[in-house]
């Protein structure tokens, strides 16, 4: 089985950004849909870019999925690939099935650590 992850990521000294769990909320804070995995990854991508980074700078990503079953792994990774395209972050990753996250209508949450590029 081939997964879009890396076993280890080594970075040069860098400024780190720790991105809180992203969920399927739009810019107004409204839930797009409990299973809208694409919105979660779009929020993550926009947050990475707002910090001054890009997908290549992601060093770690944790994906938490409520009531995860094996059938969801490909669906979640496909949603991420649709948002990031060929720039999907090959990073140290953890994919966890969990009983619940902060609110019952939230069914996926993704957080990340980003090693930001040095500014000249």
UniProtKB/TrEMBL annotation:
Superkingdom, natural source: Bacteria
InterPro entries with a match to the protein in the record: RutC-like_sf, YjgF/YER057c/UK114
The organism's taxonomic lineage, starting at the top: Bacteria, Bacillati, Bacillota, Bacilli, Bacillales
Gene3D superfamilies: RutC-like
Pfam families: Ribonuc_L-PSP
Record-linked SUPFAM superfamilies: YjgF-like
Protein name: Translation initiation inhibitor
């Amino acid at each position: 089985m081939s997964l879009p992850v890396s076993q280890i990521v080594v970075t040069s000294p860098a400024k780190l950004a720790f991105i809180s769990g992203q969920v399927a909320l739009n810019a107004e804070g409204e839930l797009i849909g409990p299973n809208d995995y694409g919105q979660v990854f779009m929020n993550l991508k926009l947050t990475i870019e707002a910090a001054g980074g890009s997908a290549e700078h992601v060093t770690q990503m944790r994906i938490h999925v409520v009531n995860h079953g094996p059938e969801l792994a490909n669906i979640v990774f496909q949603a991420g690939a649709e948002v990031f395209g060929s720039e999907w972050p090959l990073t140290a990753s953890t994919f966890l099935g969990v009983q619940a996250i902060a609110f019952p209508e939230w069914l996926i949450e993704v957080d990340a650590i980003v090693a930001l590029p040095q500014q000249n």
